[in-house]
Design goal:
The structure is a single chain. This protein is an alpha+beta fold. The protein folds into 5 domains: 1-157 and 171-193, Methylamine Dehydrogenase, Chain H (7 Propeller), CATH 2.130.10.10; 196-294, no CATH class; 305-373, Transcription Regulator spoIIAA (2-Layer Sandwich), CATH 3.30.750; 381-480, Pdz3 Domain, CATH 2.30.42.10; 501-616 and 652-687, 2-enoyl-CoA Hydratase, Chain A, domain 1, CATH 3.90.226. It is 18% helix and 26% strand. The strands form 10 sheets. Strands 24, 25, 26, 27, 28 and 29 form a 6-stranded antiparallel sheet that branches. Strands 30-31-34-35-38 form a 5-stranded parallel sheet. Helix 2 (305-323) packs antiparallel against helix 3 (334-345), helix 2 runs parallel beside helix 4 (351-363) and helix 7 (547-554) runs parallel beside helix 8.
């Protein structure tokens, strides 16, 4: 039996009422709906203009529905709907991020997570403060006369006998949820646990459950080593009777609570287990009296690829229809497009064919960021090519010599240079004559002998350039030289800018607008900003979402100076440009890399040198995957920019000074775009000198 077919939109959350009479639905268009089981009737409870509702939760008596209602990003509040009359009330004010509501089993409290801890932490690299680990579980006492479980009790706390009677559960008892709406938000109390990063709050028998996540950086580079295991996410339980918190299991990916609140299904260490909800999960792989591991290898499925591909094709079309940034699909007859390509679908013979077809179909919309990415493929770690972090070439005598050893970047664990490691001491001009005792072939070089050696010790036999005795050294090749070569590229250009400007200009490269780019800016921000002018290179910028943070740094203007005795003066505000700022862009500055250039021009921070940028600013959230794990993205977040309107999409940002980088420039190592940026910055300094600290005032009289 199908209910409300075609009238719900895309269902993002679904929660059946405990009595089975109705369902709550959160739809993709911000609606919160209740669907009656018997009649199929749909009631619209509420609607959001700020995104999707989440965390649908019923009271034990099925009389109330709670959910997290989004406000302006990142705020959200809890709302309550009384099913009898569909009246909606605010349970919490729209001031913080309140989410994951859950009624306690006795119906007396609404538990939820809230990011309302304001305990700032100083940044270690720049003068800034951040709120880290600001979440904490809270309880909202629903009836005005119900005391807080953490406060004093009028007659003292009940004994075990008073709480449990004869200790037997009464399966017919149905707790009634009474809510006094007046003063509701004043009855919020935090649980006595430290603020941290929490998610997935649920209620279970006599307690609350949640996942506690470790505080880690977005790049994952702060561990003990590149291959170090990251800290576990743990499942914790707070006992509302004994008022204490305990860890139930580590390395938990997700969990679910049974209807009676007595058992949990958890995914931990890659396995699915069913365990009690009130005791620690036993360590080890063996089953115990109260814990059972579900053998997922017993699952068998029959797959019809052609049928699956048809469903994926239709699903991709529906998701695009429901999320594309223009409801009118930009004037494209989307249903007609899907029908026109459908005969091709019938001739698809492989998964790769389907991926190509979906790319073509989504491309009909003529909008950026419409991607199709298949699930991760097979990889044999034992066959990873080992790389030495060096430029090698074949000499006239047939030997393979080192032309350049790339320097390590010690602030980036991914930029480790094997030949620059302590004790290796391989220099430019040295020849690699053997790998693990096998002679290097004069034609193919050492690469075939390094197959499968990434991350493993390898012995190299090295013939020094000065003709001395051969040396035997042990190195650990890397699997990827991208980070190593990137940092060397940046260092070379920074040195070039310093040399050409006589040390007057600083240089920063911004590779992307996510965590990696933010880290890269700050590696040299303090020293490069302190020079008279600045060249900001956003060529090859892969985009992201942090451009406004970058612009905030570049747009600072010095209005004062701090002159401590015996120390160099510092600008106020700090890390502000002291003179001209010149940006460099190219055709690979895309997405947020487009936006940062448009913002630099709109705010008149400085000129942009290079060529027109990529031209794709309708953003995505990478939310949806098809049934086999294929990621399909929908251009949803349109972007308007001052001075450009909607014109950056499919056009890009035009530079103030156009300089084309030819293939010959690349081949011969020239960088005319950077040269022009240096020239403009130095010329600007001739007309308007950089700001400098004043001399101390003279004595009066």
């Amino acid at each position: 039996r199908r209910l409300a077919a075609g009238r719900l939109g895309r269902v993002l959350d679904l929660a059946p009422a405990p009595d089975g009479s109705r369902f709550a639905v959160a739809a993709h268009d911000g609606r919160v709906l209740i669907v009656e089981r018997e009649s199929g009737e749909i009631h619209e409870v509420d609607r959001s203009e700020n995104g999707d509702a989440s965390g649908l939760a019923w009271s034990p008596d099925s009389a109330w529905l709670a959910w997290s209602h989004p406000g302006p990003e990142p705020l959200s509040q809890l709302k309550l709907a009384h099913v009898a009359d569909l009246s909606v009330s605010e349970a919490t004010p729209l001031r913080f991020r309140d989410f994951a509501p859950a009624f306690t089993a006795d119906g007396k409290h609404l538990a939820f997570l809230s990011e309302r801890a304001f305990d700032p932490v100083y940044d270690a690299h720049v003068f800034d403060m951040a709120f880290i680990g600001s979440c904490r579980p809270h309880l909202l006492t629903l009836a005005a006369t119900t005391p807080s479980p953490f406060g004093p009790q009028l007659h003292g706390r009940p004994t075990e006998k008073e709480k449990g009677g004869d200790g037997e559960d009464n399966p017919t008892a149905l707790p009634i949820t009474r809510i006094d709406l007046d003063g509701l938000a004043d009855r919020i109390v935090p649980l006595p646990v430290e603020a941290a990063v929490y998610s997935s709050l649920r209620t279970a028998r006599d307690g609350l459950l949640w996942l506690r996540h470790p505080l880690t950086g977005v790049l994952g580079t702060s561990g003990a080593g590149p291959d170090a295991r990251r800290p576990d996410t743990v499942l914790e339980r707070y006992d509302l009777e004994k008022l204490r918190c305990e860890e139930l299991s580590s390395d938990v990916g997700r969990f679910a609570v049974s209807g009676d609140g007595k058992r949990l299904a958890i995914v931990s260490h890659g396995k699915l287990s069913v365990v009690p909800s009130d005791s620690r999960v036993p360590a080890g792989d063996d089953d115990h009296d109260d814990a059972v591991t579900v053998d997922l290898s017993r699952i068998r499925r029959t797959l019809d690829p052609a049928a699956e591909w048809r469903q994926m094709y239709d699903e991709a079309g529906r998701v695009m229809r429901d999320n594309f940034w223009r409801p009118d699909m930009g004037g494209v007859d989307w249903a007609g497009v899907l029908d026109r390509y459908r005969p091709v679908l019938e001739r698809v013979a492989t998964h790769d064919d389907l991926m190509d077809l979906l790319w073509e179909v989504q491309g009909e919309l003529g909008t950026s960021h419409a991607y199709v990415t298949p699930p991760g493929g097979w990889r044999d770690d034992a066959a990873r090519q080992g790389l030495l972090g060096a430029d090698l070439s074949r000499a006239e005598d047939g030997s393979w010599r080192v032309d350049r050893v790339l320097p390590s970047e010690t602030s980036d664990p991914a930029a480790r240079s094997p030949l620059a490691a302590p004790g290796v001491a391989v220099r430019a001009g040295d020849a690699i004559v053997a790998v693990d005792g096998h002679p290097v072939d004069p034609l193919t070089g050492p690469a075939p002998l390094l197959t499968g050696s990434a991350g493993r010790p390898v012995e190299l036999t090295v013939s020094p350039a000065d003709g001395g005795d051969r040396r035997h050294v042990v190195v650990v090749p890397v699997a990827d030289e991208e980070a190593l070569r990137y940092h060397a590229w940046v260092a070379d250009r920074r040195a070039y800018v310093h040399e050409r400007s006589g040390g007057r200009l600083g240089y920063l490269h911004v590779p992307d607008m996510v965590g990696g780019g933010w880290a890269q800016i700050h590696r040299d921000l303090r020293t490069e900003m302190a020079r008279e002018g600045l060249v900001v290179d956003v060529r090859e910028n892969r985009g992201g979402h942090t451009s406004q943070l970058v612009v905030e740094k570049l747009a600072r203007r010095i209005v004062g100076w701090d002159l401590p005795r015996g120390m160099r003066p510092t600008s106020y505000p700090g890390d502000a440009p002291r003179g001209p700022v010149v940006a460099v862009a190219n055709e690979f500055s895309g997405s947020d890399g487009d936006i940062v250039n448009a913002a630099i021009k709109a705010l008149k921070i400085g000129p942009v040198v290079g060529v027109r940028t990529w031209g794709g600013v309708v953003g995505i959230d990478s939310r949806y995957r098809l049934v086999d794990g294929t990621l399909v993205t929908q251009p949803k977040y349109a972007f308007w920019l001052e001075g450009y309107g909607w014109g950056v999409e499919n056009h890009g940002v035009d530079p103030d000074v156009e300089v084309v980088m030819t293939p010959r420039d690349h081949a011969e190592g020239r960088d005319p775009q950077l040269d022009e940026a240096i020239r403009i910055a130095l010329e600007s300094l001739e007309h308007v000198p950089a700001k400098a600290a004043p001399e101390l005032p003279g004595l009066p009289g």
